[in-house]
Amino acid sequence: MKISENFGLGKYMTFEFSKEKPIHNWFWYKEGYAPEMVEWCLNHSGIKNGTVLDPFCGVGTTLLTCKNAGIESIGVDASSLAAFISKTKTDDYEKQDLENALEFLHKKLPPQSRWEWEFELFSPRAAFPKRNYNEIVGLRELIEQEDARVRNILLLALLSILPQASIVMKDGGVLKIDKNKRALPAREIFKRKVKRIVRELETFKTGHIPAAFIGDARALDIGGETIDCVVTSPPYLNNIDYSKIYGLELSLVNQSKAEAQAVRMRAVRSFIGKSMTPQSLPPEVGEIGNTIPIIGTYFHDMEGAISEMYRVLRGGGEAHVIVSNSVIHQTHVIVDEIFGQIAERIGFSEVEIVVGAERIADVKPQKVKTRESVVIMKK
Ligand SMILES: C[S@@+](CC[C@H](N)C(=O)[O-])C[C@H]1O[C@@H](n2cnc3c(N)ncnc32)[C@H](O)[C@@H]1O
Fold first, then answer.
1. pTM above the 0.90 mark?
2. How far apart are the first and last CA of the chain?
3. 15 Cα nearest atom in ligand 1
4. Domain with residues 2-92+206-378, CATH architecture
5. 210 class by beta-carbon count within 10 Å (0-12 exposed, 13-18 middle, 19+ buried)
6. Is the CB–ligand 1 distance for residue 242 below 6 Å?
7. Which residue in 89, 139, 143, 196 is a FRET match for 227, CA 20 to 30 A apart?
8. 125-170: per-residue pLDDT in tens?
C-alpha cells in the first residue's frame, strides 16, 4: 500500500467550496465535499465516459459534477432527504417549470393549514416563531399541489431555509433550541431562495440525468461489473447520527414518523445508539474493535460497503473513498489504512492513500494529529 501527500486537496474535502458554486450551494450540507474533489478523482481514474457510482451520495456533489462533465452517474443514499436533494439538483428542467416556480410565489397561503408536521424529537412548533411555523406548513401544503418538477424545486427551497427560519442550533451531533437565536422571516427568505434557484437553472446545461435513489451501500441494487469508477465519502467514525441532525428537514420531506427510524436502520453504524450486537470483525481492526464496540461495528459495515464497490466495479476500475481518521474514546483510529488493508484482502489489486490534510484533534488532555485522505482502490 503506497502512501503519499497532496496537501492541495485538503480544502476540497469539506463543503466550503461548494457553498460558492451554483446549484451545489442549494442545500448546506456540512458533511459534503467540493466538486473539485470529484474532478480530481475522475482525472486520476482517467474516465471520460462510462458510469460513475457514489454509494453514499449525500446531497449529490459527485452526481452534479459528473453531469457537468457529461458522464453518467448513479447515486445511492440511506436517507430519503439526501436522495431527494440529489435528484432535484441534478434533474433537467423546462422553461415552463421555472416560470411555474416563480408564479407560485404569488399564491395565497391557506389561512389555516391542514398539513400536520410531526417530528420524533420535539414538536416542530417549538423550533420556529409562530408566524414562521404557520408560513412553512402553509407553503408545504401548497407545494404538494404542484407538478412533480416544480414541487421538487419548491420543496428543496423550503428545506434549505429551515435552519435560518428556526431557532434551532445544530451543535455537534445534537439539535438544540436556542431562544436567543434570531430567526429570519420564512416566507421572505423562501422567495429569495426560489428566485436564486431559478436564476441558476436558467443558465444550467442539460445532460445525462443521474439516477439518485434510496438504498444501502452495503447491499446495492446494482448489477456486478457495471460501474467504471466510484467516487464517494462514507459517514465518518464520529458518532453523528444524520437522521437526527437533519431530522427536521427529513420530517418535512417525509411525513411519516417511521421514516427517521427506517433511515437509521439503513445507515452505516458510525454512531452510538444503533444496536451493536457482536459480529464478525474485520481482522485488520484488531483488539480496539472489541473493546470499543462502535469501532467494530463501523468497520464491519464498511467492509460490506467496500465489498459492494468491488462487486459492481469492472476490472481496472477505481474506487476513490474520501475518509478521515478519528479519535474516539481517546483512541486514534487510522481509518484510511484499515480501509486499504480490508480492500487488499477483498481482492483490489492496488491500493494507494493520498493524504489531503492533517488536523489537530484536541482530545484533552492530549492533542492528536489526524488526517483526511483519499483511499484509491483499483480492481
Ligand atoms: C459524508 S456524507 C456524503 C456527502 C457527499 N459526499 C456530498 O458531497 O454531499 C455520507 C452519507 O452517507 C449516507 N449513508 C449512511 N449510511 C449509509 C448506507 N448504509 N448506505 C448509503 N448511504 C448511507 C448518509 O445519509 C450521508 O448522506
1. yes
2. 14
3. 8
4. 3-Layer(aba) Sandwich (3.40)
5. buried
6. yes
7. 89
8. 999 999 999 999 999 999 999 999 999 999 999 999 999 999 999 8
